[in-house]
Backbone:
């Protein structure tokens, strides 16, 4: 009796109630995912100080932990086509929350002498849960972002609606990140890592219980007919053959993959060489997350109409400029000017760390509009999988670059040159940014 069009066009009061509940579910989901920085901040110090790993090993472990994210297309296909008790989004959010709670609880109750291999397995399990949850959440956002029906007279409202919801979940995630990094920076020297891991496991368990109490039918999602995995795979393959989707996703992934990340080296440089306190790094990350929060507001109010190509290219160029700034920082340029290292780390390092993710907001708004109806989960999952793989490649390239310029846990003489190489590689994708559409295009081609 309820059709996709009917859900969208009628029942204003019922629709409003579903929209509020949907925003609560998404808000909690994205907030918790943003708060994941809380245990991960602890993991970095735990690996460095507790397990005494070197910079390259730290970066390899951090990059490899993202491997479950590469499987997102599989989770998306299953989410799009396999219904559990008549639901195909909420059960997967709950499953992901359960796996995360289980993994962090396992780390929390493990002895301090836990092996690197064991903690790697637990982190992989946690990221598997996180990736399943993210796929389901992203699919809901993509579906709801396309809610204005084709019959509406103002088809220009469609990208606006998508941008509003994208900005909402972006802000929710950023708020979780702000609080997670703030609490992480405050308590990392006051509480044991195990107690902090335990706290996060309880938080994700709470998300699990809240999620299973919600019926998907009450969220007001559009009703798409259930399709088999084979049919869904065929539709995904067909969608990815569309030039505007294929070229855009390829560019976006490669724009990360070509950058040899030196995050592990920078972490050791700041904590081991400069002896910067963990609370300062926490504040740095809080500042970064606060700028992400501000970015969501600015984009939603002022930048939704800006060409995605121009906006994303500008962000890419800004990333390269801040990497050159890092080169000057490591060279001691700002120190000679009287700028304290802690000030630079809080402001500039915190901003650069999150600037990598600024591109996601305009790009996901674009992709949500290009997604064919019914395979939103698959497309968004494929995108995030490609980005996850790109970050893994980027991390491994960073390890190779650090080895080439002979950076160790105690010798950072080659670090400035490595940062210049990193900045140059960051600029390269701008030269083929024509792969991104100049303007956000909707599925509705009617002009008048």
Residues:
């Amino acid at each position: 009796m309820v059709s996709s069009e009917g859900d969208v066009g009628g029942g204003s009061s019922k629709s409003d109630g579903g929209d509020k509940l949907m925003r609560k579910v998404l808000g909690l989901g994205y907030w918790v995912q943003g708060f994941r920085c809380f245990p991960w901040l602890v993991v970095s110090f735990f690996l460095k100080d507790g397990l005494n790993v070197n910079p390259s090993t730290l970066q390899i472990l951090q990059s490899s932990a993202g491997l479950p994210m590469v499987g997102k297309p599989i989770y998306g296909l299953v989410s799009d086509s396999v219904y559990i008790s008549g639901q195909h989004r909420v059960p997967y959010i709950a499953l992901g929350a359960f796996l995360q709670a289980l993994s962090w609880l396992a780390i929390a109750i493990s002895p301090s002498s836990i092996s690197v291999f064991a903690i790697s397995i637990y982190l992989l399990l946690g990221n598997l849960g996180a990736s399943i949850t993210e796929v389901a959440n992203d699919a809901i956002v993509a579906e709801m972002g396309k809610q204005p029906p084709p019959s509406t007279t103002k088809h220009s409202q469609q990208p606006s609606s998508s941008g509003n919801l994208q900005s909402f979940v972006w802000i929710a995630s950023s708020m979780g990140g702000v609080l997670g990094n703030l609490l992480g920076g405050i308590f990392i020297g006051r509480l044991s890592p195990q107690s902090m891991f335990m706290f996060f496991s309880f938080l994700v368990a709470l998300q699990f219980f809240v999620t299973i109490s919600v019926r998907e039918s009450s969220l007001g999602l559009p009703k798409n007919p259930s399709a088999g995995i084979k049919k869904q795979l065929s539709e995904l393959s067909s969608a990815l053959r569309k030039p505007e989707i294929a070229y855009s996703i390829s560019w976006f992934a490669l724009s990360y993959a070509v950058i040899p990340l030196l995050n592990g080296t920078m972490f050791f440089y700041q904590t081991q060489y400069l002896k910067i306190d963990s609370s300062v790094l926490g504040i740095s990350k809080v500042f970064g997350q606060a700028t992400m929060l501000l970015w969501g507001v600015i984009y939603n109010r002022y930048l939704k109409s800006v060409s995605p190509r121009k906006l994303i290219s500008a962000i890419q160029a800004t990333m390269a400029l801040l990497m050159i700034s890092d080169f000057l920082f490591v060279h001691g340029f700002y120190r000679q000017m009287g700028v304290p290292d802690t000030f630079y780390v809080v402001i500039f390092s915190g901003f650069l760390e999150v600037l990598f993710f600024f591109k996601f907001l305009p790009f996901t708004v674009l992709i949500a509009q290009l997604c064919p109806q019914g395979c939103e989960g698959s497309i968004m999952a494929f995108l995030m999988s490609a980005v996850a793989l790109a970050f893994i490649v980027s991390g491994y390239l960073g390890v190779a670059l650090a080895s080439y310029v002979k950076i160790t846990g105690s010798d950072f003489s080659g670090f400035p040159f490595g940062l210049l190489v990193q900045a140059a590689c960051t600029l390269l994708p701008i030269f083929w940014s024509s792969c991104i559409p100049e303007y956000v295009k909707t599925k509705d081609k009617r002009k008048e």
Notes: Residues 157-187 form the longest helix (31 residues).
